[in-house]
Every structure is written in structure tokens, then in C-alpha cells.
Amino acid sequence: MNDPIRSMVIPERQLTRNMSECPSTRSWKGYRRADGRVGIRNITLVVYTVECAKFVAHAISQGEEEVHVIGFPGCYDNAYAIRLMLALARHPNVGAVLSVGLGCEYTQPGRIAEVVEASGRPSAHFFIQDAGGTKASITRGKAVLRTLKDESVGQLEEVPMGVKDLVVGCECGGSDATSGLVGNPVVGRLFDRIVDAGGTVVFEEIVEQIGLKDILLSRARSEQVAAELAATYDKAERYCREVRQFSASPGNFAGGLTTIEEKSLGAFAKSGSKPIEGVIKVSQAPVHAGLWLMDSVPDEHYMQFGYTNPNDSEGLMDLISAGAQIVLFVTGRGSVIGSPIAPLVKVTGNSRTYTRMSDDMDFDAGRVLNGEISLQEAAGELLELVVSVAGGQPSKPEALGHREYFIPYKHQDVPSLIEGCRA
Amino acid sequence: MHTAFKINNRDNVATALVDCPVGAKILLRGVAEQQQVMSIEEIKAQHKVALCDIEAGEAVVKYGKAIGYAANAISKGDWVHLHNCASNYDERSNTLDGHSGAPTDTQYV
């Protein structure tokens, strides 16, 4: 019991469920893409390349089924944001992409379309200035969408998939004390099960591991990974000190959390107990199955650090950029966000929040605190929910139509890719 | 019934699961079943109660790890929060309003 994370165990009852019904062995229908990855949805994505094109992009998607929107607000381009949009446009849940620009911005919709097409997906692009303004662009965009959707459905390759094919990401936000007591520990046990079944899981929020360097390094798969984790941790701590902002919000403090170390200990519980296979940066996919840490903290450069995760939606975009087909969000206080591309499943450790916001919350882990179920039972139920959502059942934010996204200016070092535009 | 959750045997604080008024006999759950602590201050749900006296400068321990240090002496049964527990990393958090968590150092002018 030397590991404080693993020892924070609420006594676990014997599992009564028949293991042959275990959701880890269940199979459902997925969509194989040209790169070999498998999606659980077939979304058509509209990407806009500057804030000026945002209204038109959303109007094109209005009333269209399975059409989601992402975009970048800046007129000056940014290598990080372009990598992120390209990763999202080639996500396994995405079947086709329409890129829409105004016509005078740096980011080029045509270049996005080229990359998408090279990935084997139907794609199209146009500029609003060329199309003739708002109404003409909406009409043209909707017509293009119909063609793209038909092409995408026509070339769909349906394959059976299971937990071993899943990439699941998790972050937390709007945390209160229950997030560390049960919300994140339940996800940690879910992560362990997904890894045991041969799947892949990704956690991030290294700025919410401040104070836990020794624990983090003890989880490394190898010496090399330990060195990667140490460098990632040190950068995050330096970042927080230099920008004088640690990752805790007024709501966290009002919810009973007193220090960043306390929040970190609770947040890190979502990583479960498996070895960490390595560190990926935003827009990189894990190269093999297992547990991965995503580093979403900016690297230092001439524009200084900037912000790491300006809000929860930004962090979810990062996880989806790694190819996560489903993302989990742990919130004690409650939240009403969703996400485009990959369905969001919202978990709360606070039963009162679950009751108060039952239209928005997918899973009540607070029952563990009330003594109704054990952590392992809760993890089993959560896995069943994840498998159902993977099989097509809409998560609550997905059913409500929540598709929040946030793509900021940021810099991360990717040596082979920094040439060309504003890194 | 007033209950609080103690996560690790080394912890010197527990997390209240319900609102606990002054003088409540708080029953501990988690690793310290059946033990109890009397609150000498109001402890709101999800806030921490001290399980023993903690000297100024001594570590405040939760999850078996230091989550900060006592900024001043804390008595058994006290509410442990921003007013008496400080981070080893984040200096700004102790300037926040102890009840709402809202910043007090940002000017709205």
C-alpha cells in the first residue's frame, strides 16, 4: 500500500456479474478508414479557416444530420492549429470534410482539402468571397455536403470492432472534492479494464499533476519513458510558475479543493494503475495500445508560452486529435459541454449534481460514495455505457446537440513540421 | 448522520460528505470506519476537517501525500481550507476568497 493513488480504495465487494457477459469482449459495427483506424461514427466535418467564415460554416451545417463544425478563429495561421485541424479532419470518426474560408486569411482551405483527400476521404473546399457571400455560400455548402455524404456512405467499409479497437480519452473539469474521491478513480479502473482488453487510453492535464513528479515517474514503462515524463513534468511546472497560473479555478476552491497538489492527486487517479507507455503531443496518435499521457502544454518560443488549456473544450479537442473515438469528462460541479467528432460521456462523482443536471450527466459515480455500489462495479457499469455509446447509442451531450470546440493559437515543438507558417 | 471520507491511513484530514454544523460528531468512512471526529467549526460538504492538531508548517496530508502545509496552527475538528492551508507550489490560491474561491487580486476598473 505504498502507492497512495492505488491505496485510496473504498472496500470492494465481490463482483456478482457473470464475467462471460463482460462488455470487454462485446463486438459492434465500426467503420474502417484507409489508414487502418476504425471509427464508431461517420461524421461529415465542416472546417472553417478564420472567424469571418464561422457564421457561414455553422449555417451550412444547420439542420444537417451527422454534420459537425470545427474551425480556427485567427487570420494569421499557426502550425499547431493547422496540425490540430488536420488531425481532426482525418479522425477515424470522420468520413468526409468540407473546408470553408473567407478568402483573404492565411490558413488555406484548399490545402486542408488536399490532405483530407490524400487520406482517402471525400473532400471539398471553397472561399465565401468567390461563392458570392452568405446566402450563396450556404446554398453551395449544403449542395456540396449532400455530394460528400453520399460519396462517404458509398465507400464505407463496415467491420466488427471491440474494446481492443477503442481509443478513449479522459479529462476532468468543474471539479469538486468528489472528482478525486470517486469520479476520477472510477475512470481509472475503467482505463485499467480497457488496457487489459487490448485497447488504448489517453489522459492529459499534466498541469494537474503538479506536485506528483515522483508518482508520475514511478508509472513509466521504461527508463526512456521516465525521462520523457520528467521533461514533460518539469516544463509544466515551469510553465505554471512563469505564467503565475496553476490549473485550479474558483469553482474548485468553492467545491472544497484547497491546493493544486490536492487537485492533482484527485485528477491523476483517472490514469488508473497501468504503466505509462509514453508521451504524445497534441495531434499525435499513440503508436500502440496501452496508457498514454498527452502533453498539451505549450513549448516556450518567441511568442512566449501562451495558455495551456484555456477551457475544457480545448482539452477535449486535444484528446480527440489523438484519435479518441470517445471522450470522457469527469465533473463534480456539473457541465453542459459536448464535443464534435467524438461523443462525450459525462461522469460525475456528485449524486446531487447528477440529479440536478440529469439531462446532461451520463453517469453517476456518486453512488460509490453513498455506499450503493463499489468502485469496481461502477467501472463495470461505465464500461458497459462506453461500449453502448461506441455501438451507436448517443451520449447525453451528443443527443442534446452539444458540439463545443475551441482551437487556440499555441506552439508545440514538432521539429520536422515547424517550417512554413507561424509556428 | 454526519459523515466524512478518509482516503489513506496517513491522512490528517477527511472530506465531509454532507454539511456538518459546529459540534457535529462526524463518522468517518473509507480507511477509518467507525472512528469519529467532532467539528469545532462548520464544515461544508466536500470540505476538509482536521483529524488531529496540525502545527504551523506541518504537512496537510490527503491521499497519503502532502497537499500543502498548515499556514497557521490547525486544531482537531477545524475546517481546513485556504485560510489555514497553503500550497507548496501555487502562491495565488491563498489570496482567493475562502468561501466562493473568487479572485480578490483582479481589478475591475
Spell out the blueprint of helices and strands.
The complex is a heterodimer of chains A (423) and B (109).
Chain A: E1 28-32, E2 38-39, E3 43-48, H1 54-61, E4 67-71, H2 79-89, E5 94-101, H3 109-118, E6 123-127, H4 128-131, H5 134-154, E7 158-161, E8 167-172, H6 177-196, E9 200-203, H7 213-218, H8 223-243, H9 250-254, H10 260-268, E10 276-281, E11 290-295, H11 312-321, E12 326-330, E13 344-348, H12 351-356, E14 363-364, H13 366-369, H14 375-390, H15 396-400
Parallel strand pairs in A: 3-4, 3-5, 5-6, 8-9, 8-12, 9-11, 10-11, 12-13, 13-14
Antiparallel strand pairs in A: 1-2, 1-7
Chain B: E1 3-6, E2 13-16, E3 25-30, E4 36-38, E5 48-50, E6 59-62, E7 65-70, E8 79-80, E9 85-86
Parallel strand pairs in B: 1-3
Antiparallel strand pairs in B: 1-2, 2-5, 3-4, 5-8, 6-7, 7-9
Structural description of this entry:
The complex is a heterodimer of chains A (423) and B (109). With 423 residues, chain A is of the alpha/beta class. Chain A contains 15 helices and 14 strands. In chain A, strand 13, helix 12 and strand 14 form a beta-alpha-beta unit. The longest helix of chain A is centred in the middle third of the chain and has 21 residues, at 134-154. Residues 1-20 and 417-423 of chain A have low confidence and may be disordered. Chain B starts with a strand and ends in a 23-residue tail after the last strand. In chain B, strands 4-3-1-2-5-8 form a 6-stranded mixed beta sheet, with no helix packed on it. In chain B, strands 6-7-9 form a 3-stranded antiparallel beta sheet, with no helix packed on it. Chain B is globular, with a radius of gyration of 14 Å. The model of chain B has no long low-confidence stretch (mean pLDDT 92). Helices cover 0% and strands 31% of the residues of chain B. In chain B, 50% of the residues are buried. By secondary structure, chain B is an all-beta fold. Chains A and B meet through helix 6, helix 8, helix 9 and helix 10 of A and strand 7 and strand 9 of B.
